[in-house]
């Protein structure tokens, strides 16, 4: 068998050598095909084979093959065209004749003339200019050579679309003396890299657009003039082309495959990226060098893979520092920029749609407050904005973000000046629909915003900057704007801004709550309350009587002074001797009470957090009014369950805590510690209480066992009817319980979330729905995940002690299997067994 295999290989070698020899005699051979054949022979025989790599044939044209007019070649003669059409070998070089008197190739001279096999063009050294569209629309031209060497060629100018859609795939060596590249001259080919000559003087737009370029070297580029488009304001109409020095021209690399600016070599003399210069490429990240300070229209638009952009402030290896940054319209539109975007110092402005249609979640405009163009961040899922300055907002800059919750303004350094191209006034205001369709509730905004009216071409409009946001409280979609001084913290309450006609915002609002309670802490229902409100507006005092409900979110602002009478007591109550306990609320000579809603007094005005990702809150004032309950009912004793699994006996004595009301002192078990205590042998019957809200059918307690140890207190035989709102079953069904007070209600999410209810010792009593408004909670039996933990305290208050914020509670993960060490031992044993098995099989 081994001998047969050797003979087969020898036979194959002989056949391969004969075949190779025959090919070289009959047709032009190609180095690529010859190499492939040699490789095949070597692979199948194991022997070294040398095969001669021959080049493709050359078709040498003569002067008679061309038509000439003066100094310009105008095309092929009939004989020349016939020769070109007769070419059948791919890769044939078509060599133009030397020694011609003509030095130029005319407009469209050879357009659509090469229709057969892929060919290469070799031009003589004498050609100085190639006219517009000279070789355009020839998909058969794969390469072009300008003269015998780059130094010998006299070529100075390549006209517009000279090689447009010509099929060029081999990279070009430009003559050293080339000076001018005109519009689209190499557009729509298959070039993969390009190097420009150092002596270039003029380069126009879209020169290498629509190729497959991944790398580019722009040479010295220190004295290059570029044609830059100028547009009519407010439209896409080009009105002029202006010569600009040392800017990458418009569209030069549009629709290529460049993935990084590091693959583009350009000197620090280049200061601008022309219109659409790198649009529709393959960038994944972008570090803009400090010497690039202007990005013109659509510079990097439609880079669908571009996720990260940063703006360098100093170029590495040089001392060049950024002078300024200007970003024109649509520069980064429809990319995939995600996460946080930060702008450097000296950012001047960004045009309309400049970052529209990305995935930016937060943005910091830096300390210089740039002008932000119309719809410049439209459609991004932005949740937070930092260092915003209202002087430079054109219309709808953050329109339709759908996620915006937090805005941090730049308070100290207001700017003034023209606000853009839509004729808005110079006033410091917030522009038309600036934050439309976000999730805004409250904003602290700078006091230098002195008007909420804007001017478009002389016509005044009330700002609708906050349309279609959820608003600061339930039941209204008005965003709360809190006016703040230059320190970013002190509230300005001069009411200099009129919001009486505003539909989507309210300035400096305070939610005022009147809460009435009796001496036992039970809520007392209030009717409407008449309040006299005094407000200072631009230095003038204005008084107004407001008929307020118990919760008022519309009539009061920071700085207001409010005066009210204690409402008449309902039946069964009388006004307490000291109905208002807050020392900041003073009694007036006429027997009424007044207080100023001073934002610096936290006893009067408190910040209420929204939670849920909001870093802002709203202002709230709670005024408690006391009434005396005339019922003979004593205060309700607090009783809590001993065990969440076995409900505690209502009214039972807590043996582990003798100080608890109702417990028996261990040293004297026969004597009650308090009047309510019950003797172990003969429990006393407490006075009949007023029936509270039904606690949920407590189970009948068993007769307590008299302790053998006299130091242990015992429980009574016949406990009294429970007088507490703490649940006695776990869980009861559809029975709400109302604590006397709820602590940290602002932490409770909207929508009656489920919380894990625990007692003061941390023992779980079960899961319950909690109402943040009135504190009621109802135990549930379903399997919803709790949003947090709420504790029932001894004073019959419910305290929210932990909020999971929609995430799984933190803690140790449970073990889900046996020892990992045992598993590894078993795995090792299995591997050893398999190894032994395979060794036996191999042998």
UniProtKB/TrEMBL annotation:
Composition skew (Low complexity), residue ranges: 663-678, 690-728
Gene3D superfamilies: Ribonuclease Inhibitor
Signal peptide: 1-24
Disordered, as annotated region: 629-736
Domain Gram-positive cocci surface proteins LPxTG: 808-841
Pfam family, one: Gram_pos_anchor
Domain of life from the UniProt record: Bacteria
Transmembrane regions: none
Record's keyword annotation contains 4Fe-4S: no
Keywords: Cell wall, Peptidoglycan-anchor, Secreted, Signal
PANTHER family the record matches: IG-LIKE DOMAIN-CONTAINING PROTEIN, SURFACE ANTIGEN
Protein name per the record: Leucine-rich repeat protein
Organism: Catonella massiliensis
Taxonomic placement: Bacteria, Bacillati, Bacillota, Clostridia, Lachnospirales
């Amino acid at each position: 068998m081994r001998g047969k295999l050797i003979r087969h290989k020898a036979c194959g070698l002989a056949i391969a050598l004969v075949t190779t020899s025959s090919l070289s005699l009959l047709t032009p051979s190609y180095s690529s095909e010859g190499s492939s054949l040699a490789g095949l022979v070597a692979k199948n025989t194991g022997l070294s084979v040398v095969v001669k790599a021959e080049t493709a044939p050359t078709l040498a044209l003569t002067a008679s093959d061309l038509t000439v007019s003066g100094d310009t070649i105008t095309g092929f003669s009939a004989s020349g065209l016939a020769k070109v059409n007769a070419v059948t070998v791919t890769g044939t070089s078509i060599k133009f004749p030397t020694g011609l008197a003509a030095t130029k190739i005319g407009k469209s001279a050879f357009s659509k003339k090469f229709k057969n096999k892929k060919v290469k063009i070799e031009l003589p050294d004498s050609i100085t200019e190639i006219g517009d569209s000279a070789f355009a629309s020839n998909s058969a031209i794969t390469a072009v050579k300008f003269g015998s060497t780059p130094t010998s060629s006299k070529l100075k100018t390549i006209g517009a679309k000279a090689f447009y859609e010509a099929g060029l795939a081999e990279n070009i060596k430009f003559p050293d003396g080339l000076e001018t590249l005109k519009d689209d001259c190499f557009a729509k080919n298959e070039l993969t890299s390009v190097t420009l000559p150092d002596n270039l003087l003029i380069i126009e737009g879209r020169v290498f657009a629509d190729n497959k370029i991944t790398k580019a070297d722009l040479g010295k580029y220190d004295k290059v003039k570029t044609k830059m488009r100028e547009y009519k304001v407010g439209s896409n109409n080009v009105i002029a082309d202006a010569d600009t020095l040392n800017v990458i021209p418009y569209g030069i690399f549009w629709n290529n495959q460049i993935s990084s600016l590091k693959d583009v070599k350009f000197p620090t003399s280049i200061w601008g990226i022309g219109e659409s210069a790198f649009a529709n490429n393959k960038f994944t990240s972008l570090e803009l060098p400090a010497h690039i300070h202007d990005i013109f229209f659509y510079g990097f638009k439609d880079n669908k893979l571009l996720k990260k952009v940063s703006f360098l402030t100093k170029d590495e290896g040089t001392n060049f520092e950024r002078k300024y940054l200007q970003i024109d319209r649509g520069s980064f539109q429809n990319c995939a920029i995600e996460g946080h975007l930060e702008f450097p110092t000296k950012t001047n402005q960004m045009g309309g749609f400049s970052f529209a249609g990305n995935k930016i979640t937060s943005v910091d405009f830096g300390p210089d407050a740039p002008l932000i163009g119309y719809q410049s961040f439209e459609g991004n899922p932005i949740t937070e904005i930092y260092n915003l300055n209202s002087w430079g907002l054109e219309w709808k800059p953050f329109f339709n973000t759908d996620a915006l919750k937090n805005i941090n303004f730049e308070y100290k350094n207001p700017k003034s000046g023209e606000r853009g191209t839509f004729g808005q006034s110079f006033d410091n205001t917030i522009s038309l629909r600036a934050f439309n369709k976000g999730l805004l509730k409250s904003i602290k905004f700078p006091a230098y915003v002195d008007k909420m009216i804007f001017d478009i071409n002389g016509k005044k409009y009330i700002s609708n900057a906050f349309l279609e946001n959820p608003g600061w409280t339930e039941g209204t979609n008005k965003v709360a704007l809190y006016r703040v001084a230059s320190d970013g913290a002190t509230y300005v309450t001069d009411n200099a801004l009129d919001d009486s006609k505003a539909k989507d915002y309210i300035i400096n609002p305070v939610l005022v709550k009147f809460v009435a309670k009796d001496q036992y802490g039970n809520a007392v229902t209030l009717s409407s309350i008449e309040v006299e409100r005094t407000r200072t507006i631009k230095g003038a005092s204005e008084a107004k009587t407001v008929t307020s409900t118990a919760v008022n979110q519309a009539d009061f602002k920071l700085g207001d002074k409010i005066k009210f009478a204690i409402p008449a007591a309902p039946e069964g109550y009388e006004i307490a001797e000291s109905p208002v306990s807050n020392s900041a609320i003073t009694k007036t000579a006429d027997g009424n009470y007044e207080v100023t809603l001073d934002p610096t007094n936290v006893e009067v005005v408190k910040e209420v957090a929204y939670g849920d990702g909001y870093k802002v809150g709203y202002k709230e004032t709670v005024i408690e009014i006391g009434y005396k309950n005339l019922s003979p009912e004593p205060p309700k004793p607090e009783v809590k369950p001993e065990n969440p699994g076995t409900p505690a006996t209502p009214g039972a004595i807590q043996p582990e805590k003798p100080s608890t009301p109702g417990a028996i002192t261990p040293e004297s078990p026969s004597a009650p510690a308090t009047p309510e205590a019950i003797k172990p042998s003969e429990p006393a019957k407490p006075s009949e209480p007023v029936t509270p809200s039904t606690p949920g059918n407590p189970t009948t307690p068993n007769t307590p066992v008299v302790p053998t140890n006299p130091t242990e207190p015992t429980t009574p035989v016949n406990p009294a009817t429970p007088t507490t709102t703490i649940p006695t079953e776990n869980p009861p069904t559809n029975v709400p319980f109302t604590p006397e007070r709820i602590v940290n209600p602002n932490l409770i999410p909207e929508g009656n979330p489920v919380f894990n209810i625990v007692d003061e010792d941390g023992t779980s009593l079960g899961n319950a729905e909690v109402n943040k408004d009135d504190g009621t909670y109802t135990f549930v039996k379903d399997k919803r995940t709790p949003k947090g933990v709420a504790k029932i305290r001894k004073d019959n208050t419910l305290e929210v002690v932990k909020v999971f914020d929609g995430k799984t509670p933190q803690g140790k993960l449970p073990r889900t299997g046996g020892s990992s060490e045992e598993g590894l031992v078993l795995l090792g044993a299995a591997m050893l067994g398999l190894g032994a098995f395979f060794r036996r099989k191999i042998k």
